Amino acid sequence: MPERHHKTRNQTYPEPERRDRDRDRDRDRDRDRDYRRGRGNEPYREDRSTVYQYEDRTRSYREADQELSECHESTNEEALYNLKYIPTSRGLCQVGQFFVNMLIVICAGVPYSNKSRYQDLASLGGLYYYYYGGAQAFSTQEAAKVNELDDLFYKLKLPPYIFSMACGGALMVYALIMLALGVFRVPYHYPIVLLPEAVLDALISLGYIPAVAFYFIKIQETYNNPTCKQREEMYTSKGLKGFECNLSGTDIAGGFFGILGVFVFMLGALLAVKAFRDVRRMKQQREAEDNHL
């Protein structure tokens, strides 16, 4: 058999060829080493980038949560008072309640402060007698009688006016207290106070009806009193007007404002019930948001 010649690693090559082979082998070794080094460092770089991205995301989430909590805390910060309550429907209604009762007090205070005593100008003599007196002036005895009737009539008419001023003043104070509670946010912190307010407003509204009826009944009794009739006759005999036993303009205005109070306080009762529902719903939503956060 022919001999087979095999190349072995110990086979000798010519010098140039061996240098080329060693150079190729070294180049391949360096390439493999660089490749292995690159593959070895690659997971490390990936891990570091992943850590950085995770930290960035965590920081961004933390900052977002912090901003949200700060915003929530700022919205939850409640001022001691809130003047913006006054222009609301309940605030304006309570202001209306105050002014309605103030007008009732004014209408009752005008006749209360007017004693309407006869001034005996004729007794002054001279120019006053001829200009203001003459045939229309009362004599001394008549002037004393008229003054006595004026005093009696003034005492007779006081009770309904005192009653009107007392009730009107008390309701003015009540309206101011309810307005102050709204400004200081008491119904928001304690919504239960809105229910007594609604009940009181409804009772006051209904109470105006008999109060106005009592007011006119007592005034009419005063005008139907014989003292008033006799006083009217004496003034009419001298041609003096303004002393008739009829309802005056202030009496009618007081009754009108009393009827207006029926509607104003009934509206206040309805608004209080509505406010109770709104505040309770808002607090439930706020609690749900707090629990969610």
From TrEMBL:
Transmembrane segments: 92-112, 161-186, 198-217, 256-276
Span of domain MARVEL: 85-277
GO terms for cellular component: membrane
PROSITE patterns for the chain: MARVEL (PS51225)
Keywords: Membrane, Transmembrane, Transmembrane helix
Bilayer disposition of the protein: Multi-pass membrane protein
Region listing for Disordered, in residue ranges: 1-48
Basic and acidic residues biased stretches: 15-48
Top-level taxonomic group: Eukaryota
Main location: membrane
Intracellular or extracellular location(s): Membrane
Protein name: MARVEL domain-containing protein
UniProt source species: Silurus meridionalis
